[in-house]
Design brief:
- By secondary structure, this protein is an alpha+beta fold.
- The chain is built from 13 helices and 19 strands.
- The strands form four sheets. An eight-stranded antiparallel β-sheet has the order 12-13-14-15-16-17-18-19, with no helix packed on it.
- α1 packs antiparallel against α12.
- The longest helix is centred in the first third of the chain and has 17 residues.
- It is globular and about 85 Å long.
């Protein structure tokens, strides 16, 4: 793959290289490789290594650990989009006999099932998967630690169950289904279950001396859907572009947006850290920027894929060490460097090609009681409603065939907005989930719940 390096300014490229150079040096990583994606294309690739004369390129494999979970989530959402399952289905409906069948598929995807974080000892990341041949070996005797749906508790066995679900419903191995339904359609030819040359070796770096120890590379067996994959910055850059924009060969843009939507209840520490979880994706507010993606680690390897959604900039960072550089911070910094140095150009403003006069007459100022709102027509045929003060409930609304609109976000998500007309066809008010919006505060003669004082507005001396 040829990376179009000239898509970024020289100063930006140097800043990116400096950031990974600092990460590799201070984190004492044997090698560190990174890529940046903008507008769906790889625009930069860089690497730093401790080996003279050798720099890993975008085709060298590293183990990506829990980024594998995002691939597994994509397979499950494909089944949902095909109508094979519903996210609210209990696992037992499709994969009976696990002993935890009351948890839902959505809870497994969002790590809210209450399952334990790890499988029973010995630690699955450093031992052969053959030690855990059955799901019962992965789950152990006490798999549930918390009530389902009540809290976020990251669970590797939960994604093992999702992989088994995919195998049951597709009638093929998880890896075969992944290759057929995701890797091949997206052109991820260097993403595999077992390492394929050229690939990096995994190392542990001594915390108090500059010496290294080779780490084992185990086949995870049943646990593969939670962390098995090997990949490259080139492949993961393409995967990041898919997670940002969708691809109808795999998942639609609306479904990948759903993956990026918070699905797990946040705890106090999550609020402090600005962290939550969607459906197979981590979500974070970092330095005023919304970032989504996933991190990964296995003995000898660290990985991070991160997307700045509003900036349309993504970064991939891989290293072959057990600990050292904080790749989530490095990835966030790579996104920030590009977004700030070369901010995204907005699309040119263009007038609407057509407009329904009955919708146009609704545009402008409305009041819910004494709260002022502005209703605007959007370029996609919907409308938006936002407070005039800048603070308060706001939402975009999708147009429906019957002339109503459905809320897409926030308090009004799923709520119905409709224009109520008088017998003569003129607009009386807007009804939004029983809230009445009028052209004037407590408009005279409007259907305001509780009525309007007949004396109207008055001064009090």
């Amino acid at each position: 793959m040829t990376t179009p390096q000239d898509d970024l300014l020289p100063a930006t490229r140097r800043a990116l290289l400096h950031r990974i150079a600092v990460a590799q040096a201070e984190g004492r990583a044997p090698s560190l490789v990174a890529a940046v994606v903008r507008d769906g294309r790889t625009v930069w690739h860089g690497a730093r290594t401790s080996v003279d004369g050798h720099g890993p390129d975008e085709n060298v494999q590293y183990r990506i650990g829990s980024i594998t979970k995002t691939f597994t989530a994509v397979l499950v959402l494909r089944l949902r989009d095909e109508g094979v399952l519903d996210l609210g289905d209990p696992l037992e409906k499709h994969l009976p006999g696990t002993g935890v069948g009351e948890v839902t598929i959505a809870e497994l995807l969002s790590h809210t099932s209450g399952l334990a974080a790890e499988s029973p000892a010995p630690w699955w990341e450093r031992t052969p998967g053959s030690l855990r041949p059955e799901l019962a070996d992965v789950l152990g005797e006490q798999p549930l630690l918390h009530p389902a749906g009540r809290r976020f508790h990251y669970s590797n066995p939960g994604y093992t169950l999702l992989g088994a679900l995919v195998e049951k419903l597709r009638g093929a191995s998880w890896e075969d289904v992944l290759r057929r339904e995701v890797l091949e359609p997206l052109g991820l030819n260097r993403t595999t279950g077992r390492p394929q040359a050229p690939h990096a070796g995994g190392w542990a770096v001594h915390p108090w001396a500059d010496v290294m120890l080779a780490e084992p590379t185990e086949d995870l067996g049943r646990m593969a859907p939670a962390g098995q994959l090997w990949s490259t910055t080139g492949d993961l850059a393409r995967f990041a572009a898919f997670l940002a924009n969708g691809n109808d060969k795999v998942l639609s843009a609306s479904t990948v947006r759903e993956m990026r939507t918070p699905a797990a209840p946040a705890e106090a520490t999550d609020f402090t850290d600005g962290m939550t979880y969607g459906l197979g994706l981590q979500i974070q507010h970092w330095d005023g920027r919304l970032l989504v993606g996933h991190s990964g680690s296995l003995p000898g390897f660290l990985a991070n894929l991160i997307i700045g959604v509003e900036d349309d900039v993504a970064a991939v960072v891989l290293a072959n060490c057990t600990s050292g550089p904080l790749l989530s911070v490095v990835g966030a910094d790579l996104v920030r460097i590009v977004a700030e140095a070369e901010p995204r150009m907005p699309e040119p403003w263009r007038p609407l090609s057509e407009v329904d006069p009955s919708v146009l007459e609704l545009a402008g100022q409305w009041y819910w009681g004494t709260h002022g709102f502005a209703l605007r027509l959007t370029t996609d045929g919907g409308v938006s409603l936002e407070p005039l003060s800048g603070n308060g409930r706001r939402s975009r609304f999708r147009a429906n065939a019957d002339g109503t609109w459905t809320g897409l976000e926030g308090y009004y998500a799923g709520e119905l907005l409709r224009a109520v007309r008088r017998p003569d066809g003129s607009v009386s008010h807007l009804d939004l989930g029983s809230f009445v919006f009028t052209r004037q505060p407590y408009g005279e003669g409007a259907a305001v719940p509780g009525g309007v004082d007949p004396e109207g507005w008055r001064a009090i001396g």
